[in-house]
Amino acid sequence: MNPQINLLCDAAWAAFPVFQSKTNAERAAFLDEIASQIEKLGDELLETASAETNLPLPRLTGERARTCGQFRMFANLIRTEGWNAETIDPADPTRTPPKPHLRRYLVPVGPVAVFGASNFPLAYSVPGGDTASALAAGCPVVVKAHPAHPKTSELCCAAITRAVEACEMPSGTFALVHGGFEEGQDLVQHPHIRAVGFTGSHSGGRALFGLASRRERPIPVYAEMGSVNPVFLFPGALEGRAAELAKGYAASLTLGVGQFCTNPGIVVALDSTDLDQFLLSLVAELDTVPAGNMLHKGIADRYVQDTAEFAAHAHLETLLAPSAAGSPALFGTTAANFLANPDIRQEVFGPAAVIVKCESLQDFEAVADVLEGQLTASIHFDKNEEAKALSLLPTLTRIAGRIVANGWPTGVEVSPAMTHGGPYPASTDTRTTSVGTHAIDRFLRPVTLQGMES
Amino acid sequence: MNPQINLLCDAAWAAFPVFQSKTNAERAAFLDEIASQIEKLGDELLETASAETNLPLPRLTGERARTCGQFRMFANLIRTEGWNAETIDPADPTRTPPKPHLRRYLVPVGPVAVFGASNFPLAYSVPGGDTASALAAGCPVVVKAHPAHPKTSELCCAAITRAVEACEMPSGTFALVHGGFEEGQDLVQHPHIRAVGFTGSHSGGRALFGLASRRERPIPVYAEMGSVNPVFLFPGALEGRAAELAKGYAASLTLGVGQFCTNPGIVVALDSTDLDQFLLSLVAELDTVPAGNMLHKGIADRYVQDTAEFAAHAHLETLLAPSAAGSPALFGTTAANFLANPDIRQEVFGPAAVIVKCESLQDFEAVADVLEGQLTASIHFDKNEEAKALSLLPTLTRIAGRIVANGWPTGVEVSPAMTHGGPYPASTDTRTTSVGTHAIDRFLRPVTLQGMES
Known about the structure:
Number of strands of chain A: 15
Largest sheet of chain A: 7 strands, mixed
Distance between the termini of chain A: 45 Å
Oligomer: homodimer
């Protein structure tokens, strides 16, 4: 066990009862102060993040607003009466046996370990949704910084630490550690850590999940690991709107160089002249998109390797070869081949897509059914084929956390009705969301007080 | 893989979309019909259960009422608007970018495997709370019968099957399998099983949890594994009420031959003449309790062995030696010894208790803090020491799922504010309850529909 990690987890445990005992108003003020402190970092934060991640300043400006908005959303949530699901069953002394008074409410689970993602250096990293929701719940947080943006992480840690001091929270309320997989292992295995939030690769998330389940006292791991996010184009939508859909799809596929976990990597459509028209427009659109700088060399190298493997695959036709790392790639296959070859259903992280050409709408159902758990699934349809399109919903809700109608999956609203999660392997815990107010549920557990009416 | 289990899980999977698509009213009528069919089994059910478990008929009559009550409670729950937590964020087309319409609601996770307990052949077995809550959620259920009451299990299975037929539910909606650990393993590892409910021993629950976490697609295991349920007697309560408390405690400790998971196996009190008085009365009370027949030979043998080990323990004094399997046993120790010896903090399944004599109220806090996760913790206090007693609440809520004030933990209300669960090792999932309406949450997951306003 890394001695620094041991110290920080012990400090988080010592802080827990004090932090938990703060009023909702005090904790809300603390969350608001974190947002203000992040804003006070000014251009230095944006420039540091841009230098470390290749993400452009306008994107990071938006991400900072989202990040601060999340803290303020959770501050408002815990200021709202009833946020902790208090339920009261009144006593009934006339019953035999007498019914006791019961009060149920939610309490924080304890210190939380957070693993930031590389693709959102703010909103899913040190000051991201996992940190904001855990602190809102009353759980101290120890973040493992993503090695791809250490300076950005330090700046954010300094801002949060200033808020801890300004609001007189115990010093163990928040901590940041750097390191690799070994440090991550130590953190997840520390006996004082009671839950884990993770955004990143399948291999990383699954490894942490395994470690956490094998602990003497197992703890939950909320790993959000991405997916291929299928898009189903019904014939009525393609008829007459092929060019418009191609434009929309190209924009969603290449947004942020395709480095979103909701990136739509699979398109399912009937083999038709409308689809041909869609593909012609799509290739033309994608041709105008310059190769973007990917987040770091590891991701760029992996993209080149994955797209090369797809290009060489016996059951994939290359419709658009990537000119460089970060440039769009397009492959085609048939439904039959898609069903028979699990390897072409895997996520390629970046702006790459597989077009699945179907013989009939029955193929849509079969393709949906064979897919693993997804964060999202999208359907595009015309008004007059709505019933047909919605008949796919039972299957889609079985495989995905969010179903988008006549829209694109990139752009995740931060709001009470959002689900950002889904069946495994989209996440390790299908009962939760990592975005929106319900993200706080991950770090709470119920307690019942019996016979305490006051 | 056992071929019969494979067949039944495939049938449950085939039934899932059909069962899920039934209306709330149809599923509620099905749950009500199960309750009626169990009642129609009449005395045959009670006599069979009594013969298999040694439990007396009045107890089983009460347990049957509880069992049928649970089905009707969940029927009423899913008839209630909003039970599936529907949340709507309306669209805002004036925002930049336009805000989409979002609708979040809960859907069933898929087929559920249920492992019945030996100590409640009805209420926590084939027709128990796990089965009722999973069916209410819309999940088909495959139960592994507890080998200690196979005939009772078959009768209940026949009743549920008649309800499946009467309500025209798909035939894979419910199934029962017999067998041992190997069959249990097969069931938990079947790819079509999506969650597990379990009530029983720590070794069994932990083993199933491990199997479920190592699956290609991990699934949640809700194992409720019991605990020692500490009782803290504050000095004001003992003063003048020692005899009354001894009577109440003796009744709770020996209820059902101590074979409840909420059985209060640890008493914490100040070393005092009031405690001496309490112990005198307690021994006198327990002396009048005849040795009860335990559930089966394995449990009786284990009780004899565990109490013999306690009697031989260097740091335990025997205050009342058990005269036979199922007869009460009482041991004493000091807070210092309790803190230093983890082995005397372990659960003895049956009517055995350890009295922890403390030097000061600080010892109460230390004793509470060293305990592992508990289903319950109880505090008895006088009105004038309420503040002192309630200052223990932060520690108690950290270790237990339910805190009982001036009452005993046995007797678990089936109601919306109940928490029957707690931190590990009381359960493998501290965020849930296995009793009360919230038990349904274990078998639901959120889904968000975006852009579907109708």
